[in-house]
Each structure stands twice: as structure tokens, then as C-alpha cells.
User: Which sequence fits this backbone?
């Protein structure tokens, strides 16, 4: 059962989207490249937290297949069920990451691929600070977002009405460095999901280090 999520808007939207998300974003070369760079940097059997783990593919699957110990957290019960089926070698927990206590210096890496967009700016800032604290010194934080200067904007995403909040590229970088992390690499790209009616989206990937 879900811990502490009470009809969270992100849970409702992603429960409805389910496995279609994986299909729509499977072609993201930048996501695969970001994961490839993380895999090159990780020591064997690293502890990795995947925030907003979705269907478990490609992130948790690639990390678990490489022998890392992966904990995926997602607020959508449907996503957690899909991920548990697809990636039996990882652990998944249904929870709102904003409410989940995280032990200090407990992970070698944290992945945050497109899971901040339904949080307020203050929540995104404080979560990234908390995730930085949950990393061991020298640990890796990999972040991806849609770098738009928008706050609470209504949008239709894969047929679901959502409210989106984000930052432009410079402000997002400032959020990350403000959390005490160094940006090792940044990649900006444009991706069009493979879904009827989808439009090109800007994507920003940051490889960061504590
Ligand atoms: C856009 S999807 C990305 C999924 C996956 N990270 C990927 O890139 O393939 C965002 C995911 O984050 C989850 N999410 C959104 N807000 C969350 C929160 N507060 N706590 C935990 N998960 C959340 C959603 O349920 C959804 O599965």
C-alpha cells in the first residue's frame, strides 16, 4: 500500500498513464547516455535511489542489471506495481518522496529523472538539498528536467491534465549548486515523445557530484 499519499495529483496522472510512459520515452537517447555515464562512474554494488522510478525502465533496470542495489520510490501505486514486475532485482516503495525520511550519507548515487515537475519551486529546492544530504561524500546525483520558467501552469500530458512547475536552465543549475553539488556535465536536448499529439519538449540533464 501507498505510504502517506492521499490522492496526490501526480499519483492520479501517472496511475492513468502507466506503461504508456515507458513506450513514449523509450527513444530518449539523452536519458540512455546519462545512465551510461552514471554506470561508468559507479563502484560495484553501489546503493542507488531512483526518485520517481516510473515503470522501472530504463533506469532501475539498467542499474540493477549492472549489479547495483536499487531502491525506486514512486507516489503512483500503478507505477510501483509495473516496476516491481519488470525489475525484480530492485526494490520499490510507494511513497511521496517529499515525506520519506532519508538517512544522511546513505546512497552512492541518486537519480531524479523528470520527477520534480509536479512539486512547487520551494519543494524542488528543499528536496534536492535533502537528496544531496542523502548522498555519501563524492556521490553522484543525476537530474533531468524540462527546463522551462513556469509555475503551476496547466498542461495536458499524455492525455492527463497536470500542473507543471519548473525552472529555466540557469535557475535550475543554481538550485543544484545551492544544494552544495557541483555540476560535472550538462546536456540540453529536445525530445518528442512517441505518443499521439506529443510536442517537442526541451530536456536538461545534469550530472552532479557531492
Ligand atoms: C515523468 S515520470 C518519469 C519516470 C522515470 N523517472 C523515467 O524517467 O522514466 C515522473 C514519475 O515521478 C513520480 N512522482 C511525481 N511526484 C512524485 C513524488 N512527490 N514522490 C514520488 N514520486 C513522484 C510520478 O508518479 C512518475 O512515475
Assistant:
Amino acid at each position: 500500500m501507498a505510504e502517506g499519499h492521499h490522492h496526490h495529483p501526480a499519483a492520479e496522472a501517472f496511475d492513468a498513464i502507466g506503461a504508456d510512459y515507458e513506450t513514449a520515452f523509450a527513444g530518449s537517447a539523452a536519458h540512455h547516455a546519462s545512465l551510461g555515464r552514471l554506470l561508468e562512474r559507479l563502484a560495484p554494488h553501489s546503493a542507488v535511489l531512483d526518485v520517481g522510478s516510473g515503470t522501472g525502465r530504463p533506469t532501475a533496470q539498467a542499474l540493477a542489471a549492472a549489479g547495483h542495489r536499487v531502491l525506486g520510490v514512486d507516489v503512483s501505486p500503478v507505477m510501483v506495481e509495473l516496476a516491481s514486475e519488470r525489475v525484480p532485482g530492485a526494490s520499490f516503495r510507494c511513497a511521496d518522496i517529499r515525506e520519506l525520511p532519508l538517512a544522511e550519507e546513505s546512497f552512492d548515487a541518486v537519480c531524479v529523472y523528470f520527477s520534480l515537475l509536479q512539486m512547487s519551486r520551494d519543494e524542488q529546492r528543499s528536496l534536492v538539498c535533502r537528496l544531496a544530504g542523502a548522498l555519501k561524500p563524492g556521490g553522484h546525483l543525476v537530474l533531468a528536467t524540462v527546463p522551462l520558467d513556469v509555475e503551476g501552469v496547466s498542461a495536458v500530458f499524455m492525455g492527463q491534465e497536470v500542473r507543471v512547475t519548473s525552472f529555466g536552465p540557469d535557475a535550475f543549475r543554481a538550485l543544484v549548486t545551492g544544494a552544495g553539488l557541483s555540476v560535472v556535465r550538462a546536456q540540453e536536448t529536445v525530445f518528442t515523445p512517441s505518443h499521439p499529439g506529443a510536442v517537442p519538449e526541451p530536456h536538461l540533464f545534469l550530472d552532479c557530484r557531492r
About this structure: Helices lie at 9-17, 20-25, 29-41, 59-65, 77-86, 121-134, 169-178. Residues 9-209 form a domain with the Rossmann fold fold (CATH 3.40.50.150). The chain is about 35% helix and 30% strand. The beta strands are 47-51, 69-74, 91-94, 107-113, 135-145, 153-157, 160-164, 182-191, 201-209.
